[in-house]
Design goal:
Blueprint: H1 2-31, E1 33-40, H2 47-66, E2 72-79, H3 84-95, E3 100-105, H4 109-121, E4 126-128, H5 135-138, E5 144-146, H6 151-165, E6 170-176, H7 179-194, E7 198-205, H8 213-221, E8 226-230, H9 233-245, E9 253-255, H10 262-268, E10 276-281, H11 286-298, H12 308-325, H13 330-338, E11 342-344, E12 347-349, E13 362-369, E14 372-375
Parallel strand pairs: 1-2, 1-3, 3-4, 4-5, 6-7, 6-8, 8-9, 9-10
Antiparallel strand pairs: 10-13, 11-12, 13-14
Helix pairs in contact: 2-12, 3-4, 6-7, 9-10, 12-13
């Protein structure tokens, strides 16, 4: 009888030990699982930008998980539809999930400016992968950094390149009325006039405007050599199309990265021909080349576009900071990000005292020829 009792105790101990080990294993597995958030335009007129960026973000996380990263990382991907209110809802969803440690987001500056207070209140580290309004980092929120140059960095070399070419001396500006559009008008005007050019007229319309003919008629009367558009894809395409309607189709139209999108050509059609944009150039390096090969090998349905590399780099920086500091102190993570010197696909990435990337900016010029964006 005693032997039977001992045997039962032994079995019970084994079972209890197994249950405890299983419970500890589950708890450990749960402790090792974290989430990183991504927000961008995955629907609507700017979706091409957001989808490429999403893919870059996912690629970084997939590589980390495959390479034995200390945590199993789950991507939480949300759509902001280029709408500030939708973006705020997405941000709230991320900060309300205790498993989300940090996030990266936004192509549109108005959306980024709307969500930043949400991330600030939660002290969640947040890296901007696309939005380029100077106001984003001028606020110097300690949890916010940005891996892309600002529109100031883009407009200066574009304005100087136009003047250097020697054909364009007078430009009329049309923009949207968002902070992004207002800032584009301000900085392009400053840099173009400083380089020796003249702004002969400037006008603006709200996002969603579909008829720019009155503005273009006013601009045409001022006898410009070209039009500069300081907004984003859909409105830019309508302006270009309506320029052709008003006999201005042979006049060049310029812009920065906000209109560099296949959707622009799709909307503007044949009128898109000859449109010129400047986008920040990133010097080729072995890590960038490896990223481009990995992106192609992954077989994403969407092209990388201009922003996949920035979202990939943002994810890499988040992963590096978490690996160094752990997941328990979000403030420490934000401080680590702000102080980082990251050798990545964009080169050496560091941030100034406001969280703005300090990388030097040159631009690549692209023109629409035969229905495609091509390098100039």
């Amino acid at each position: 009888m005693q032997n039977r009792r001992n045997a039962l105790k032994s079995v019970s101990s084994i079972i209890a030990g197994s249950v405890l080990a299983l419970a500890l294993g589950v708890a450990q597995a749960q402790a090792d699982q974290i989430k990183l958030g991504f927000i961008g335009p995955l629907s609507g007129g700017n979706a091409q930008q957001g989808l490429g960026a999403r893919n870059g973000f996912l690629l970084a996380i997939e590589q980390a998980n495959a390479e034995g990263y200390p945590h199993q990382v789950e991507a939480v991907v949300l759509d902001d539809a280029s709408d500030p209110s939708v973006g705020v809802s997405a941000a709230q969803k991320l900060v309300n999930d205790p498993a989300v440690i940090a996030a990266t987001g936004h192509w549109n500056s108005p959306v980024a400016l709307a969500t930043m207070p949400v991330f600030q209140r939660a002290q969640m580290p947040f890296i901007i992968w696309g939005a380029i309004s100077p106001k984003i980092t001028e606020q110097n929120l300690p949890n916010v950094t940005r891996v892309t140059p600002t529109l100031v960095n883009e407009n200066k070399p574009l304005a100087e390149a136009i003047i250097k070419e020697g054909k364009i001396k007078k430009i009329a500006i049309i923009s949207d009325t968002t902070d992004y559009g207002v800032a584009n008008t301000k900085w392009f005007t400053e840099f173009f006039t400083a380089a020796g050019g003249e702004i002969v007229s400037a006008d603006a319309a709200a996002v969603g405007t579909t008829d720019f003919r009155a503005m273009l008629t006013t601009a045409k009367a001022a006898a410009p050599d070209a039009i500069y558009f300081g907004g984003v894809v859909t409105e830019a395409a309508l302006v270009r199309s309506q320029m052709a309607d008003l006999g201005m189709g042979d006049m060049p139209m310029y812009g920065i990265s906000g209109i560099f999108d296949p959707k622009f050509i799709e909307i503007a059609g044949a009128a898109a021909e000859g449109t010129i944009v400047g986008t920040p150039s990133v010097q080729s390096n072995p890590k960038l080349e490896a990223f481009e090969k990995a992106y192609e090998a992954r077989g994403f349905a969407e092209p990388a576009g201009s922003y996949a590399k920035y979202a990939y780099e943002a994810a890499q920086i988040l992963l590096a900071a978490i690996k160094e500091k752990g997941i328990d102190d979000k403030e420490a993570l934000s401080q680590a990000i702000r102080a980082i010197n990251h050798d990545g696909i964009l080169g050496n990435v560091s941030f100034d005292e406001n969280g703005q990337t300090e990388m030097a900016v040159d631009i690549d010029l692209h023109v629409v020829r035969d229905g495609k964006w091509v390098d100039m």
